[in-house]
Each structure stands twice: as structure tokens, then as C-alpha cells.
Input
Amino acid sequence: MPTLSAFITRVRERIGEPTEGYWTNAEIRSFINEAARDISRRSESLVTDATLSVVAGTVAYTLPTNVVKLLKPATFTPTGSSARHPLEPVDRANAITRWGISQDINSGTPNMFTITGYAGAYSMLIYPKPSSAGTINYRYAKYTSDLSTTGSQDGSTVDIPGGWEDVAVDYAEYRCWMKRRDRDMAQMARQNYTDGLAGLAEAGNRPVEVPGEITRDPFWWVNEEWGW
Output
């Protein structure tokens, strides 16, 4: 993946200003950060695998702060076993209906989970209450982390899906023209960005098939329109 410095050069080629002038490098770095965040959120193309250490008798576990959406599959493996038990995702309302007060009574091998909290502070609740320790393996689409706008991280790579770097350049170009109030150029760059983002999502960068519509709720299983 290109470095932040390489992105700055490419954006400056687009706007016809090879060195700092009307647009500062700090501004362009900020625009690239915005692009990376928007691309990761909308395309859900930055996917990582993760684990949670399960403690016997404990049902709630904190998820990473950069979670956009959890993806299939999620499994539970008891300590000392090689078996991976699938965890069924259920929405919060159905979880309350199905578990009731028994979440605090019944114990066994977890076979379902739900999500609670809000963006940046999500938790996973599993049921039944685990009777033994173990590990949850899961996969999620993640947000990117901003790079410094001071220039101290210009040699760092920008977290953009490989082969789709032009989409981030389109976004930064759009923001540059917006600052200059050049509506025609801004509209053209924005359209390029929108088309590129749609192409990225359609290209199937996700390792599993998930709904493509973006909703305000980042978890596909808690949105009733998916039919869960």
C-alpha cells in the first residue's frame, strides 16, 4: 500500500499544485485520513480476525473500539478442545425474549450471542453462560486509524484496500476543490469517488457474503430488514 507521502504527491498532481501553496500538506493529510475512514466504514473491506478469551461464568466481553461490523463466522472453542461450536447471532430484542432470566441461571456451551453498546464501545453477550473457559474466534470489518497530519508519519502506509488507492485520491481531490469553492471540479471528483466506492463494495473485497446496504446500525443481525 502507498505511503501517506505518496498519496500527497498524487493528490497534488490532480490539483496541479506540486508544492505547498493554496493547499497545505497538513490539509491534504487530513483529507486522506477522512477518505480512509469513509472507505473503511462504507465498504467494510478492511477485515481482520480476532479472539476473545472466555471466562467460565462470564457472559459479557468488550469488543475492539474499531469495530464497524462483525462478520460470519463466530465460534466458541472450550479450553482443552479442538471443537469449534458455531455462535448464532441474534438481535438484542430477540435475545431478551429467548433468554429471559435464564441467562443468569443456565450454563453450558455458548451457542448464540448478541451485541450491546454503541460505536466504539460495543460488547458481546453470549448464551448460555459458559460452563468452562475457552476462546471465541470471530472476524470483523474495522475502521482505520488516522495518521499524523504533522508529517511525522508520512512514511507510513495508508490503510486502503490494495488496488483501490485512486478512490482515496478522488476523495481528497474533492475536498481540495471544495475548499477552493470550485463546484464543477468538486462535483466531478465527488462523482469519481462515489463510483469508485461503489465499485470497491461490488468487487467483493469482503471474504464472506454480507448485505451490501449501509445502515445506521453497524451490525447486520440487529436490523430487522435483513430478516433475522
User: Anything to note?
Assistant: Helices lie at 4-15, 25-43, 92-99, 165-180, 183-202. Residues 47-142 form one domain. The chain has two domains: 4-45+146-216, 47-142.
